[in-house]
Write a structure and sequence with these properties.
Serine Threonine Protein Phosphatase 5, Tetratricopeptide repeat; 69% helix
Length: 371
Amino acid sequence: MVEEEVPLPILFHDVTPIPQEDGPHPVCAISYKEDFTEAMNYLRAVLRANELSARALKLTSICLKLNPANYTVWHFRRRCLQNLSSSPSTKFAPESIQSDLEFSSKLGGSNPKNYQIWYHRRALLEPTFEAEMIKQKEGKEKGKEDEDDIIQKAKEELNYINGVLENDGKNYHAWSHRQWVLRTICFPPSIYNSELDYVHKLILDDPRNNSAWNHRWFITHKGCTRKPLSSLEDVQKEITYAMQCAEVDPFNESPWRYVIGFLEECKKYSGSEGNDVMEAADVKSLINSCEQEITKMRGNLGSTEYDVDSCVHLTSAKIDILEMKGDDISLEQAANLAKDLETEHDLIRKKYWKLREKEIRSRLSGSKTDY
């Protein structure tokens, strides 16, 4: 049975609505719909009275259905939920959290990029999730049932995000929220493995989805809590994965940046005091291996109808790798490639490549071999 809506004048029979004040001579008054004007007039009165009641909560539902982007209403709604909570140990009552997650899901269906809705979901879950994180850090004991319940809630939130990303795989708010969930909860390793499988499917659907590539980096680094990767095998696996994607479409910048990101990270941390991740010889081998693969790929591309020199992202990656090697021959080759991009193949970024060439040649004057 559907609950019958009580008209606002009856629900707030003891409240005098406060109309919007546009001044004595408004230049361009907005023509609001009648139901919107009525709801907002009552909301102003309730806000002024600081009434954090059940009927005030009901009023926020009406206002948000009319305008889901109103941050003030969302904030006031959370204050109402907190005031109405019957749970002494949590900010919001568990039943309120669940019902409001469902409410925000309904509003989010037609507003998937509404920041206020995503923030509301986070604000609802944050007290529970962060309390769990504090317990983990302090080593406090917790019941297996409580732990399973929190992980289940987090999995449900990930499933909700899956549905949003299915419609738009580049929704920034959805990805940001997903990474917050993964950072906040100490998931078992199986979750990270399933996340890798999930993001692999998204990359297959759209190899140029930079959001998916960014998330893969995030997952391989365990939510940025482990930096850099400490296993040579893990690094090789990720570089091989990206190189295979680049081979399918060498004009796709995403896998090239992924490869360069790993190589730069390995080079930065190897051999530095207190940060021995892998031997310098291993990093040198990785860099040389990637250079060989790129050279091979350029050769294969040259045998097709495509102009190998027009593949800017492949050439850009080779320049970066040659710079990492750092010897005179490599630097000279990198400078020449940058010159080619500047003068012929990437004119839209002419000034950028001119600067890169200048920087590389400045290293030639007093260069030393990095690897």
